[in-house]
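Hi X.,

You mentioned you wanted examples for the new student's onboarding notes, showing what a folding record looks like when two proteins sit in one file. Here is a clean example. The first protein comes first, with its sequence line followed by its structure tokens.
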Amino acid sequence: MKKILYIFSAFFIFFSLTANAQFSPYFKNYSIADYNAGNQNWGLSKTDSSQLFVANNKGLLTFDGIKWKLTEMPNKTTVRSVLYKDEKIYVGSYEEFGYWQKDNKGILKYTSLSSLIKGQSFHDEEFWQIIEWDNAIIFRSFFNIYIYEDGKIDIIHPPSTTISCHLVNNQFYVATLKDGIFKLEDRKLLPFIFDNVLNEKKVNFIIPYQNNKLLIGTALHGCFVYEKGKLTPWQTPINTTLKEYQLNSFSENDSYFIFGTIQNGVYLTDRTGQIKFQVNKENGLLNNTVLGQIVTNDGKLWLGLNSGIVKVDLSSNLVFYNDSSGKLGAVYDIINYNNTTYVGSNTGLYYLDKKNKLQFIPNSQGQVWDLKEIEGQLFCGHNNGTYLVENKKLKLISTQAGGWVIKKVPEHQNTYVQGTYVGLVSYKKMDNHWQIKHLGETTNPFRFLVFEDESTAWAAHAYKGLYRIKFDDTYDNILSIQNYNNKGLSSEYNVRVYKIKNDICFKTNEGWQKYEALKDSIIESPMLNNEFGNDTYIISEENENVLSLKKENAIELRSFDSKSYQMIVTDKYFKNRLVIGYENISNFKDNQLALSLNDGFLIADKSKKTANEIPLKPIIDNFSVNSKTLTLNGFNKEDFTYKSNISIDLTVPGTSNHFYEYAIDTIEPIKWNKIEKERLELSNLTEGLYTIYFRSNNNFKIPSEVTSVYFNVNPPWYRAKTGLLLYVLLGLMIAAVFYLLHKRKIAKEQRLLQLDLEEKQAIILKEKSIENEKQLISIRNDALKNEIKLKSKQLANNAMSLVKKNETLTSLKREFVLNRNSFDSHLYQKLLKKIDGSLGQKDEWKIFEYNFNQVHEDFFKELKKEFPKLTHKDLKLCAYIKMNILTKEIAPLMNISERGVETHRYRLKKKLDLDKEDLQTFLKNY
């Protein structure tokens, strides 16, 4: 029992490592997220320029190669069928059919045709098919056939459920569920094929077949050949498959019959029914249920799926092998050995069986770097070492880890050198056995290895630069290894070494270089930089007549010696699928090359060139100014307002892998700018005449013809006629205002001048009055001064008089004293007393003081206020001094001697706190 379980487990493990994948043409999936509509896509149609229209659950889908656009039906129903004819897009929906057509603004407008039928109720009819025939458009439901021609609709009622309609050699056939196939003639159904074989069978297609035969396909019972009134099963391999997976749709081109199934995607066969390709979910198709299909005139097959839309490129010379299971991983090398395809990846080594199913080779798990046929044997350079592949099994021959690259030694039979993780290893075949030896000297890992001659090789390390290696004659030892990083190498990182036309060439991060033997140094290679490009490197095998170059957006295949052969594979075929840094193109078989990819590989047929797709001239799809849509034939004739915002939508029907550019006509050299998201938006346009050029371009800088638009932007209103008129009116108004203001200003100035004059006159009068008053005051002051002088003179005279009187009295007294004996003593005393009473009388002083104050106002008062200690005698002396009376004259007035006056003056200065200042000068201030 355990043995049975073990066998079963091994069997299960083996098949779990078997990946289901198939060869297929290139196809591109468009998911719901891409086209943003319903999941189911029932029918497809195309224009002459291959613009696509799709009948979708949500409405009508249009696709111009770059952008999708959904247009919903007026009643929001599902579109079941679609047909493009003469600028009209006919659609069939639920209880409704009609057509869409663009108006003069480029906007699709719907016209209902079912409304032409008066008194007809549809009773849940849906229109599943639309066919053009003899200038008529025919709409088919399961119940009736509606023929639209010359603005009228005729109705045909088949005897049972109408399954399909077909146009064969301009004959119109109607297939029913129970009553066979009819031919439509003169609006009547005539029986054509009635055979029990077709009873209760759904006929999907009827096409002309070999020698006036008809090929009829049914949903669940395969295909039949109709010849001379008899139906016989179509004896081909595809027939059994169609019965199993349910045929649902059919199309054809010159090379293929294309069968769409409900359960297993689409099959492409030749015209004898031999299966060439299958595209299904296992090799990357979004969904296995094909609802509709169409082949466009540019060789593209479009599939409407139960969830998504797919474009299959039937015109390409590229074939893909895709593993959607993820088991294969990143592919590093492919080889066809003994009619078996071997695939080396990061998960191990695989081979393709007779059904092209991927089979895992046991014990090969791990990184496979290199597959190469040497001396009739298949070498597998592996992470664990190097193996021989024999009978789909591995045989370890070298334990040196990481067999990166192996090269034959020139001029030496059966001798090879391999670059590994641990350095260089030699292989020699002796008596049908391989002798392997590590060559020592270096343990550096070498991924790139090229022989300069039979004894010299160049090896490149990923991060440590470049080495030149000399071997001995037997290739048992390395004689010398020289680092060439300092010999002119522009960069030590990512160095790749090649032998091109007998020159040793290097690709570094900085560009291409080559070895100059005469100088023993590395120099720049302008020729290779110009020919290939600084960022381009070779990914093909050595000594091939076709060189494979990895460019930024493509892989270019060209002849080694000339450009007589050239093929370009754009990155749309392998975007995000290359094994970055380890890109590899291998010789597959015959004229085929294999490009390694993640989860698969690509086969390119060198015998078939792929023409570079030249983008078509772009078309203006919508022109809006300030959010207002203009007519497409009228925008060149309109003038736009200043600071307008314009929006221009572009389309190029049927072209893919392109982008749009625009340029504005200026006096400078024209400059093309890329347009993002197929819409050009220009804001705040200034005035002037504009010419805008549009073109399509692709990754190879191949531009299309130019589309141009012309329009004029008016100047702003303030620089236009309206502004000019407004300026004139405004100028006149301003002039009038200035005139009135000027007039008012003049009147105001006159008033101000009058007031100023009056004010000045008043000031002058006031000044005159003040001057007169000053003069009067001056006159009064002069008079007062004169009066003071006069009074001073009078005081002086009075003082002199007093002096003289006192002198006289003193003299008399002296005489009396001298002659006292001559007088009676009583008389003497009486006279002497009168004389003494007259000398220095107080009343005389009061009179003097009063008169002095009249002349010198408040002299004594101010002097007493400042110097309160002054005596009455001191004040007298101050008055006499101020009056400028001499000392000798003061003495009699004060009845003292002159010396006494001097003494009194000295004491007075002390009281007045005067040192050097003259007493008379001080007293003048009072």
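Then the second protein repeats the pattern, sequence line and then tokens:
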Amino acid sequence: MTSDAVTTEARATTATAATATATATTVAAVPRWAERTVRLIPWLGLPVCLWRLPIGFGFLMGLDMPRSDQPLWVTVPYVAALSLLSEAFALLCLVLVRPWGEVVPAGLPLFRSLRGRRVPPAAVVVPMTVAGLGLSLLTLDWLLCTFGLLGFQGVGFTGAGWALLGQVTSGLFCLWGPLVLTATYAYHRRRRAR
């Protein structure tokens, strides 16, 4: 190696270390309530993910509807994938409170040219706001159907216990949208202040 190559490598290492130090301090600025909110989101989605798994196997969990005529090799992977994707998105919400939501991680295997660069706030705020608004529509639908408002009706249940279980699990899931929006707002305010 030439001395120029060693100097360039040393500068790159110093820049990466400086970025890591700067990144580590960004987490301290996260409000405690925002951190707790984002940690709560995967837990709110988990009950409905577990509740829907038996439906993939043909057990309707008290839903008053005909059984699907789809074979298990279609319904089981579909329901499992839907549950896994739900939880993956819930965990992705950590971008709102973690350093990798503000600076591209140095260990990222793809996009080497982006390593250590600041993430534009809009790259996080816009998709999270769209997702939060979409999930909030589910909240509105849940409220209208569960309480029979404005003539809306949800799927019926075969018993009061099944209805309570279905409404509570889906109700917890429907808190997700408003929580994503509030955490996104906190992220936006924190990034705007810097």
